[in-house]
Amino acid sequence: MTLRLRIALRDWDYMTPLALGDVSSDKLDIQVDRIGTLVSHLGKDPDHDAAEISFSRYTQLRHDGDDTVVGIPNFIMRGFRHRCVMTTADSDITKLSQLAGKRIGVTGWRDSGNTWTRAAVRREGVEIKDAMWYAGRLTEAHPITDRLDGFGQPGLIEACPGERPMLDLLREGGLDAIFTPFMPDGYFEKESPYRQVLADFRGEERRYFDDVGYVPGMHLIGIKAEIVAANPWVIAELSKVIDESQRMWTAKRRKYAETTPWMFDEILKTARDLPKGWDASGFAANRKMIDDFANELHVQGIMKRHMTPEELFSFDTDGSRI
C-alpha cells in the first residue's frame, strides 16, 4: 500500500519528470500541485502534506519552537543573487559597493533571496545602515501586501511611499536600485530601460562561489511533522525522487539543448565552472551554506540569534537523525 503525498511546488523545470510521473516511487503516490506563491505555513495548510518552503520562514519556525514542519536539507531552489540587483539603463551605478548611500527597493524584507542579496552587498562593504531601504510591490500588477513583515525601521527600512510600484519609483528617480528575484515584463527586450547593476554578474558570481564554496539555497522541502512521525521513511523516499527528477532532467537538458540557441554553451560552462555536486542535497554537503544563511539572518536583524545548522535540521535527507 502506498502513502498518498500532496506536495506544492513551483514550476521548476527539473521537477517535470516528477510531475509527469516519469519518476515515481513504489512507496509514495505523489500528487504535485503547481503553485505560483509559496504555502505560507505548511503546518497549517489543509491542502498539502509537503511543500517547497522559504528557508527564512522555516528558520523562523524553528526559532519559535514551531515543530509542525520537518525541513529536510534538499534545496529545491538555489541561485546566485548578484544578478538580482537592477537599475535603470542610464544609471551610473555599476558596482555593488556604489549602493552605499542609495535608495534601494526590495520585494520583501525577510525573503530568503533578498537576504542573500544583502549578504552579497555586505561583502562589498555596504551594511544595512549604509542605505535607505523601501519594501514594496515591483509593478502595478503585483498585490499590495505587508512586505516589511514587522521589520520596518523609520528612516531606514520603510514601505514604498503610497505603496507605489517600485518600477515607477525607479524610473522617476525615487529609487536608485531594486532587489528582485524575477525581472519585470520587457526586461529582456533589446531596448529595455533597465539593466542589472553588474554588467558581468556571471564573473562576480563565479568569484563569489570560489570564495564561499556554494550556490545559495532559498527554498527547501518541508513535510508535515505528523506525517513524518507516522511514516519515518517518507523523508528519504521523497528526497530520493526529487533528486532523481533533477538528475533525469539534467540528462535530458544536455541532450535536448536546442530550447534556446546557446543553451548548450550554458550547460557546458556550468559543468566546467562548478564542481560536481554543487547542487547536492544533504546536511553535510550544505552545512556551511546553512550556517552562513543563519548568520546573515542574525546579522541583518531578522533573527534574534544565530541558530546552528544542527538546531535547524533534525533529519538528513536519508531520514537519519542529525
**Count of discrete alpha- or pi-helical segments spanning 4 or more residues:** 10
Radius of gyration: 20 Å
- The number of E-state strands comes to 11
CATH topology of the largest domain: D-Maltodextrin-Binding Protein, domain 2
Strand content: 15-25%
Low-confidence stretches: none
CATH architectural group of the largest domain? 3-Layer(aba) Sandwich
Q: How can the largest sheet be summarized?
A: 6 strands, mixed
**How far apart, in Å, are the first and last alpha carbons?**
29 Å
Summarize the structure.
By secondary structure, the chain is α/β, with parallel strands linked by helices. The chain contains ten helices and eleven strands. It has helices spanning 16-20, 55-63, 112-122, 166-172, 201-212, 225-230, 234-255, 263-273, 283-299, 309-312, and strands at residues 3-9, 28-34, 50-54, 69-78, 85-88, 103-106, 132-135, 157-159, 177-179, 194-196, 217-224.
